[in-house]
């Protein structure tokens, strides 16, 4: 009779305890990582070999003081209006050489997106959170313009194209194709965001 | 009387716990897949700001993480409340920052050294002074790719207290 009943059942009552133990171990030793952020390139320390003369009107100067107030193009600006102002500056097309721009062609503002430079200056006592918000808005201005061109040319947003291009899971054929598109759009609105050395506190 | 009691206990059905291990295992697998092992013990406060125009950091092997923030309470008696830099598990002074970074880079395999990205995990409340110094040091040792690591979200929330 005992033989016919087969092997005795293993008591699985403690399975839950074991699983809980493992669960708690993983809860304690791991974190949900944040691995995204604003990519920036720092300017190299050696000065460029040839001095480039940049016209004042091609520079969009953004300064943040220690209280978090913004001076954009010599005007006190609210942070919420910064993106629009930066976009107007980049898209201005003063000399008419940019055929995809939709700017106002103001002769006092930038010549074309190739020449337009945004310069960001901050105080030593500026809060990091304010600085990131400003950075975010300026990168956002570039992204909005690039998205516009990308929608026009490829019917897809630039940020999506770029994310796909950078994704390691994308296969190499698609990557080649995306690379071309991404580089083309980047050329239409090159990101020229300079971070000047910090001014001393006053 | 005793007979009555016996009957009652037999009639109350027990809640089956047979599926409990399954539920717990499910949770376990969820946590195993979405989390990664902690590699650094934070010694500074590190609440990152929000940003919306973010890019994902791919290729983990070429990232060096630098934490900046106020020392946590248990270190404040010794180090004060000024923002400090933490690399790995150690506090690093701004003077030594360059050499520590170079050391970290030399630990990486040769072929990825030119592509090293510095992920700056800076607390919201830090001021730009120290960060400017860090950027200056990074320029000095020619590490130019940086990433201001942030949470995804509306960047205007940073301005609220």
Between the first and last Cα atoms of chain B, what is the distance in angstroms? 68 Å
User: On the 0-100 scale, what is the average pLDDT of chain B?
Assistant: 82
Structural class category of chain B: alpha/beta
Strand order of the largest sheet of chain B: 6-5-4-7-8
What is the multimeric organization of the chains shown?
Answer: heterodimer
Shape of chain B: elongated
Determine the number of helices of chain B (DSSP H or I, runs of at least 4 residues). 5
Give helix % range of chain A.
25-40%
Write up what this structure looks like.
The complex is a heterodimer of chains A (202) and B (161). Chain A is α/β, with parallel strands linked by helices. Chain A has a domain at 56-195. Chain A contains five helices and seven strands; from the N terminus they run H-E-E-E-E-E-H-E-H-H-H-E. Chain A is elongated. The mean pLDDT of chain A is 80. Chain B is an alpha/beta fold. Chain B folds into two domains: 2-34, no CATH class; 50-155, Nucleotidyltransferase, domain 5 (2-Layer Sandwich). Chain B has five helices and nine strands. Chain B has helices at residues 2-11, 20-34, 73-79, 94-106, 128-140, and strands at residues 36-37, 50-51, 55-56, 63-69, 84-87, 90-92, 117-122, 145-149, 151-152. Chain B has a five-stranded mixed sheet with strand order 6-5-4-7-8, with helices on one face. In chain B, strands 2-9 form a two-stranded parallel ribbon. In chain B, helix 5 links the parallel strand 7 and strand 8. The model of chain B has no long low-confidence stretch (mean pLDDT 82). The chains are: A alpha/beta (202), B alpha/beta (161).
Keywords:
heterodimer, A: 202 residues, alpha/beta, 5-stranded mixed beta sheet, 40% helix, B: 161 residues, 2 domains, elongated
